[in-house]
Amino acid sequence: MSTQFSDRNSVIALLRHSPLFSSLANTVLLDMLSHFRRETWKHGRCITGSENEQRFHVILSGRLKMGRINPETGRIVTLFLLGPGDAFDVISLLDGEPSPVTLEAKDDLELLSTPVEEARRWIEYHPEFNHSFLPYLGRQMHLLADLAGDLALHDTETRLARLILRHIDTDNSHHSLHLIHDLSHEALGEMIGSVRVVVNRQLQHWQREGIIISHRGKLVVQELEALLKKAMHHSHNSAAKPSPEKPKNRH
Prior knowledge:
Helices cover 40% and strands 19% of the residues. It folds into two domains: 8-141, Jelly Rolls (Sandwich), CATH 2.60.120; 154-232, Orthogonal Bundle (Arc Repressor Mutant, subunit A). By secondary structure, the chain is α+β, with helices and mostly antiparallel strands. Helix 4 crosses helix 5, helix 6 (156-166) crosses helix 7 and helix 6 (156-166) packs across helix 9.
């Protein structure tokens, strides 16, 4: 059934900033949009794997954390922190299996969603979508490989440095952070397989060294070269030098 949006043009403009939809012709984009429904999730909403619907979502605004939780210890590791233009869950889209991840809204979220079966039809019938979808899937797989490598090969200081470097806003001369700029120390710990107290201690140490500054709950990198050295100090050339992640368009 076709879904009508009263602000269709503004929704299309937002989708044009997504790596999944930016190159699609208007006719294809309008066909896809007709099968979406709009959803809003409040900040703090948490959905466990058993509650996940078989739907494909695209984020219009806000941030979403995808993680895995150990039911025995309650310990969480963040797999992805997604922002505007990102989609989930692309793995379930491919294999049709329920996702075991836990989803948490880090902000108020505005999303579009469609049944997985409908999104799978796009892959089959719209080659234009494949040209965007496959590179996006590849990027997510690389991020998972980076996370696995960091957890296996590096100590906490190195992992935290590499995390920050991946989220440097390269369009900002003050080296502010994209997506993770205001996350709690607990949330940062979940992204590197650590805990709040360890992250807090490390950030305080870097502030004393003048490498980062914290202002009103937001982190800014003061000495980029020094942070790069921290990221490479324990690597022994076993991993590629982390580079600042190309910033996404923010809405």
